[in-house]
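Example protein was shown:

_____
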Amino acid sequence: MFVEVYERLDHAHHVDDRIVLDSDTRDKGRFKVTSESGLEVRIFLERGKTLAVGECLKTECGKTIEVVGAKESVSDAACEDWQQFSKACYHLGNRHVKIQVLNRVLRIKPDYVLEEMLTLLGLTVTKTEDVFIPESGAYAPGYTGHHHHDHEH
């Protein structure tokens, strides 16, 4: 038995089932996954828009399925010094690395070259298993920041 999903929900009053997805899978628009209840779920959504942890999807038969973040291998780089932290943000951003920004902790997918760079910048790198929710970026759909250019003089 399988269900197909073509629609995102703005909000849901109840959840019928859940799918647990890692960060790479949440970036895809088309894939198959098995839900927590054992149901095969076939996702057919618009490409280029990441699924958010906590987001709900509607199946063609009317069921509501919640997206849950899977724990995966991540590297956390931490420091107490704001200047070191800012430099690390700059260098990771300059390399277009997906990062999750926590309280003076930068979470990335494990990468020994980046981990060495962060260590050289004075951060302490630890490996762990946790949900990875990278920043969506300023140009991503749904970004809530506002930027205004005033071209009149």
User: Anything to note?
Assistant: The mean pLDDT is 90. Strands lie at 2-9, 17-21, 30-34, 40-44, 56-59, 64-69, 71-78, 100-102, 105-108, 124-131.
